[in-house]
């Protein structure tokens, strides 16, 4: 099968023929000994490739040392192998022209050398892509879509694309027609898409979540269904939350991407504001109420000093004046215990200050006593 797939190719490419003819003229002393000529070309190729690679590397390294970034230094380091092996494979292809082998063997040998060179270049471009993505992630002001959370996604995507291109070039080198393979892959892709549409929906949503980053690992979020917890993992298929009851929830990314998610840790900072509603009886000294509530809020060590706690009177209720104490905590996770401690503090302080809380009560007026009474 592989025999029929290889298309007929010329024995040696025109450029190689010209170089081989010139080398043959220079090596007249080894005329008639093709193996000696091929060996000389191979040895010279290795020497030239080594010193030329060393020379180019030093020039590029000197240029890279003049810059303040590390990207070009790493690029010079990974450039040495592809330069050396490309020069080496080119020289070995020239040496093959001196060997007394058949045309078919020559074609196959050149195809093998080209395939090796393609794989070497494939490894280089994979390293280059990862180096570029990691360097770009550190420059968020220029490349805001490359972030630390999305590095594995873009690195894997770049690796798959480069490997696919390398395979295509290797098949093309051997003369294998890729039309049938691509058609089969297209049909298989459609079938897989219909069979796994939910999984693909989760995968696509995961890509958008990792790229858009509406939340990140460590954030406290509230789902539309009411669940609240810390984001512990963002995968390609699902997102995991750890609730305050230490129960782990696994939510498909398709659900996370298509529903409302409140990120309590989002915004310009991680601070979170909470509110405590209090209703005091009519006739209370409102200035005293405001002073007591603010002092107790400032006395709590978990409450932030900036912004400062504040009190707002909101409405006239049926049985008293409703006010609201608003304060900030540094992290959403400590909201619950802070509210608990603050309510206890306010209750005790109001009892000491003689401030009465309003509660529901009904006055019953008897219009007329019955005669039996």
Would you spell out the secondary-structure blueprint of this structure?
Layout: H1 2-5, H2 14-26, H3 34-65, H4 71-96, H5 103-137, H6 151-173, H7 179-195, H8 197-212, E1 220-223, E2 228-234, E3 238-243, E4 248-252, H9 253-257, E5 261-263, E6 272-280, H10 286-299, E7 310-316, E8 321-329, H11 335-353
Antiparallel strand pairs: 1-2, 1-5, 2-3, 3-4, 6-8, 7-8
Helix pairs in contact: 3-4, 4-5, 5-6, 10-11
Structure description:
This protein has 373 residues and is of the alpha+beta class. The chain folds into 3 domains: 175 residues, no CATH class; 55 residues, SH3 type barrels, CATH 2.30.30; 82 residues, Alpha-Beta Plaits, CATH 3.30.70. It is built from 11 helices and 8 strands. It has a 5-stranded antiparallel β-sheet. It has a 3-stranded antiparallel β-sheet with strand order 6-8-7, covered by helices on one side. The N terminus is likely disordered.
């Amino acid at each position: 099968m592989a025999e029929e797939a290889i298309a007929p190719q010329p024995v040696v490419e025109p450029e190689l023929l010209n170089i081989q003819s010139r080398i043959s003229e220079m090596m007249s002393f080894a005329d008639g000994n093709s193996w000696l000529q091929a060996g000389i070309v191979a040895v010279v190729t290795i020497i030239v490739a080594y010193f030329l690679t060393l020379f180019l590397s030093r020039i590029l390294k000197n240029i890279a040392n003049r810059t303040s970034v590390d990207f070009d230094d790493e690029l010079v380091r990974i450039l040495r192998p592809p330069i050396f092996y490309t020069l080496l494979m080119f020289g070995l292809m020239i040496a093959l022209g001196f060997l007394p082998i058949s045309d078919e063997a020559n074609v196959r040998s050149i195809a093998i050398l080209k395939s090796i060179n393609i794989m070497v270049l494939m490894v280089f471009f994979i390293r280059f892509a990862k180096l570029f993505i990691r360097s770009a992630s550190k420059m968020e002001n220029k490349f805001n879509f490359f972030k630390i959370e999305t590095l594995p996604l873009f690195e894997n995507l770049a690796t798959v694309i480069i490997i696919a291109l390398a395979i295509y070039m290797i098949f093309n080198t051997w003369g294998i027609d890729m039309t049938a393979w691509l058609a089969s892959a297209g049909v298989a892709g459609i079938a897989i898409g219909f069979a796994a549409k939910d999984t693909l929906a989760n995968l696509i949503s995961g890509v958008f979540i990792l790229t858009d980053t509406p939340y990140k690992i460590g954030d406290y979020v509230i789902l539309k269904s009411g669940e609240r917890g810390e984001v512990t993992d963002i995968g390609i298929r699902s997102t995991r939350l750890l609730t305050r009851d230490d129960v782990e929830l696994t939510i498909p990314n398709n659900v996370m991407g298509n529903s409302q998610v409140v990120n309590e840790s989002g915004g310009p900072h991680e601070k979170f504001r909470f509110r405590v509603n209090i209703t005091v009886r009519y006739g209370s000294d409102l200035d005293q109420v405001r002073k007591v509530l603010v002092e107790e809020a400032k006395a709590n060590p978990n409450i932030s000093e900036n912004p400062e706690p504040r009190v707002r009177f909101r409405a006239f209720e049926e049985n008293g004046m409703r006010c609201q104490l608003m304060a900030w905590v540094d992290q959403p996770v400590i909201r619950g215990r802070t509210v608990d401690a603050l309510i206890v503090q306010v209750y005790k302080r109001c009892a000491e200050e003689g401030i009465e809380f309003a509660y529901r009560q009904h006055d019953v007026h008897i219009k007329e006593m019955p005669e039996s009474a």
